[in-house]
Amino acid sequence: MSETNQTKPEVGVSGRKIIYDKDGKPCRSCNTLLDFQMATGKVSAPAKKDKYREDPPDVEKLGNSSWTFIHSLCSKYPEKPSTQDKVEINGFFNVLSRMYPCTWCADDFKKYLKEHPLDNTDNEGLNRWLCGAHNEVNKKLGKKEFDCNLWKKRWRDGWD
Ligand SMILES: Cc1cc2nc3c(=O)[nH]c(=O)nc-3n(C[C@H](O)[C@H](O)[C@H](O)COP(=O)(O)OP(=O)(O)OC[C@H]3O[C@@H](n4cnc5c(N)ncnc54)[C@H](O)[C@@H]3O)c2cc1C
Asked: Taking every annotated instance into account, which residue ranges of this chain make up the domain ERV/ALR sulfhydryl oxidase (predicted)?
């Protein structure tokens, strides 16, 4: 291995290739934070873990990843949705409430959907509705409710 390769890791902790800027420094916004910190020597590389041999997700990991996906998807719902957009977002939530892998979570979600039909009129309506649906689960689990006025900062625009 050349000296350059020794000082400039090619692969990060995440298993992704480290991306370098034209000046040869690790790119801050092209790498994961941990990979960037490792490549800049701020943290040492932890023992290698084979990401392809992780266990299936438990209820927490599945839930967190799912909410991330669902909120991110809904954050891009159009301001003026077409009829097709409306039909497809209804279909998405119907599938979710039928097929979410945690079956007792899915059953409660299906009940919520029936009692609180989703608001597909526009971007704001859908995201407010989703925030309410997520808060219902938070309440059930004894967690703090999220302030729905902040949904855009959390899922679309960022905090500054
Ligand atoms: C459809 C669905 C139903 C579920 N039902 C159950 C269940 O019945 N029982 C169970 O044990 N688990 C259930 N879960 C999982 C549970 O909701 C959590 O995902 C899990 O407990 C992990 O919680 P967390 O603390 O990582 O944060 P999560 O609740 O996963 O939230 C992730 C992030 O979303 C943000 N957030 C939190 N609340 C809101 C909100 N109201 N609006 C916008 N953003 C918000 C916060 O920044 C938070 O860090 C369900 C998940 C889904 C997707």
From this structure: 55-155
- The rounded Å distance from CA 138 to ligand 1 centre is 6
Is the pLDDT score of 46 beyond 90? no
> Domain coordinates of the chain in residue numbers?
9-46, 59-157
Q: Tell me if the pTM is above 0.70.
A: yes
106-122: pLDDT as tens digits: 999 999 999 999 999 99
Q: CB-based burial of residue 13 (10 Å sphere; 0-12 exposed, 13-18 middle, 19+ buried)?
A: buried
What is the homologous superfamily of the domain 59-157 according to CATH? ERV/ALR sulfhydryl oxidase domain (1.20.120.310)
Indicate if ligand 1 lies below 6 Å from the C-beta of 138. Answer: yes
Residue 83 has pLDDT above 70, yes or no: yes
**Is the Cβ atom of 135 under 6 angstroms away from ligand 1?**
yes
Average pLDDT estimate for 49-73: 93
